[in-house]
Amino acid sequence: MAFLEAARWAPSSYNIQPWRFVYARRGGNGWTSILEALNPFNQAWAQHAAVLVVVLSAAEAPASDGEAARPNPAHAFDAGAAWASLALQAHLSGWATHAMGGFDAAKLRQALRALNGLALHAVIAIGRKADVSTLPVDLQDDESPSGRRALSETVFEGAMPSLQP
């Protein structure tokens, strides 16, 4: 709950806090339905996590003072800030997190009973890191930090140069 509390305090546009989290503990209520919505590659290792957390966000800002609900273009950005806060708190507490985009959205939406106005963003596995040798051989090499583009390729002052994607 401390990880989710950190997410709760993330900044959001107009303080709308559009993020929603649905979690399941391994072997607990909802675990199987979330796990089965993952693609087989992710199921193979995520089944060993302590908790699976689904990140969703409301695409519309709630109505106020008799106004109709309106689109919230910042909902995904805000949900990302909440997920980052969760991940940082987990790391500071000695836990590992891994966000996954490989899931069957229709299956997951049905399992969670999530309304269509909620965007599904990711499923996060939370657990303690195991020894790399416990992974299948083809996954062991993925356990080293992945490379990143040079800062000069992603940060620009004043305007973006003409870049190829």
Number of helices: 6
The CATH architecture designation is 3-Layer(aba) Sandwich
Distance between the termini: 39 Å
Major sheet details: 4 strands, antiparallel
Report helical residue fraction: 25-40%
Report the average pLDDT across residues.
93
Radius of gyration: 18 Å
Q: Quick one: overall form?
A: globular
Number of domains: 1
Strand content: 15-25%
Describe what you observe in this structure.
It is a single chain. With 165 residues, this protein is α+β, with helices and mostly antiparallel strands. It has one domain (2-136): NADH Oxidase (3-Layer(aba) Sandwich), CATH 3.40.109. Helices cover 31% and strands 21% of the residues. The chain is built from six helices and six strands. Strands 1-2-6-5 form a four-stranded antiparallel β-sheet, with helices on both faces. The protein has a two-stranded antiparallel sheet with strand order 3-4. A hairpin with an 8-residue loop joins strand 3 and strand 4. The protein is globular and about 55 Å long. The model has no long low-confidence stretch (mean pLDDT 93).
List the keywords:
165 residues; alpha+beta; NADH Oxidase; 4-stranded antiparallel β-sheet; two-stranded antiparallel ribbon; 6 strands; 31% helix
Layout: helices, strands, pairs:
Layout: H1 2-8, E1 19-25, H2 31-37, H3 40-46, E2 51-58, E3 60-61, E4 70-71, H4 75-92, E5 96-100, H5 105-112, E6 118-127, H6 137-140
Helix pairs in contact: 1-4, 2-5
In short:
This protein is of the alpha+beta class and 165 residues long. The chain has helices at 2-8, 31-37, 40-46, 75-92, 105-112, 137-140, and strands at residues 19-25, 51-58, 60-61, 70-71, 96-100, 118-127.
